[in-house]
Amino acid sequence: MSGSHAPDDLAERLERRWAIVASVISAALIAAAAFAGIHQATMPQSRVEMVDPTTLHLNGEFIETNLGSALQPDGSVMVRVVGQQYSFTPQCILVPTQTPITFRATSADVIHGFLIEGTNVNTMLVPGFVSTATTRFDQPGERHMPCHEYCSIGHEGMWAIVRIIDKAQFTRMAADRRRLDCVKQ
Ligand code: CUA
Questions:
Q1: 70, 114, 117, 175: which is deepest, by most CB within 10 A?
Q2: In the prediction, which pLDDT does 174 show?
């Protein structure tokens, strides 16, 4: 009787072994997601906001005069950005050090990537939707902001610069201008 069970025992052993392997893989994936979410502050968006990509330039928060960096009453900075084939507006984004920076961005045409090197900002700009991301910069300097979603032939040339300046200097500049970008620096 026990002899006839041998193939079943083997199958059960293999099943158990595979269940352990699968559990370890699942645990590793959960650990990776937790590391990205908690340690690197990479979060999916908390809500879905929609915007009409065909009227971005005509009305609403993404009209050209409303793009760039603005100091908020709570001391944080809000940056509005539009991506289109094949550039970002503004082309150079001015932000202060040691300040919470929230980006609100969208696309006027196709899907673009939105990534600031060396930060937790890494998302997509999808026409019809507003993408948000929050980060902060400790040191002055410049970061590249390349489009990292293939968006047709000009994709390789689509990038912007984030210029980080001293917080006191930014605050002085913000005192007499509502929107800041590198051009008016
Ligand atoms: Cu825009 Cu690639």
A1: 114
A2: 86
